[in-house]
């Protein structure tokens, strides 16, 4: 039983939605990251910015319509979180600001982005509900299993939509090909009849 549980935990751990990224931000530049997220999903992020004297870094999170979901100015480290309302693509931008009299230096930025199950604080949930560590882990695995089932359901629905689109496209291409063949045959027949009349009018053929 314990071995099966460990295998289940290992399998589910492969499907965790966590993204950690690190890069250098040039002075007076902007770096944006895009993330596609389903509806009703909790998204959280933790960032850390290296210190550069006299410089500052701002960040802002926007959806595809330009609505601001989270922002902060002159940051060094911190966290943010929001819950999506619709299936959308969100953009996280970090902007370096350097005073005009300074040359500026690169700043290292690290971002740990989580969504779905991994964004939830199960320790806080366990403390609030007075759950044992094993019960908290089982709750986490239950939520993760439900999220996986929902992902497979969305994938199946997307596959069905793609199949319907392909079948519809194939039917349209077939009808267009038949229509094109008919047009070519009609044009060829008209050309033959026209040339026949022309040659007869010129008395080149009988």
Instruction: Indicate the percent of residues in helices.
Output: 40-55%
Low-confidence stretches: 1-16
Q: Estimate the strand proportion.
A: 25-35%
User: In sequence order, what are the helices and strands, one letter per element?
Assistant: HEEEEEEEEHH
Oligomer: single chain
Distance between the termini: 96 Å
Instruction: Specify the CATH class of the domain at 18-120.
Output: Mainly Beta
Q: Could you say which structural class the secondary elements and strand pairing correspond to?
A: alpha+beta
Overall mean pLDDT: 81
Rg over CA atoms: 31 Å
Number of strands: 8
Main sheet: which strands, in order across? 1-8-3-6
Largest sheet: 4 strands, antiparallel
Q: What is the number of helical segments per DSSP (H or I, 4+ residues)?
A: 3
Could you say which overall geometry the principal axes of the C-alpha atoms support?
Answer: elongated
Instruction: Identify the CATH architecture of the domain at 18-120.
Output: Sandwich
Indicate the CATH topology of the domain at 18-120. Answer: Jelly Rolls
What is the CATH superfamily of the domain at 18-120?
Answer: GOLD domain
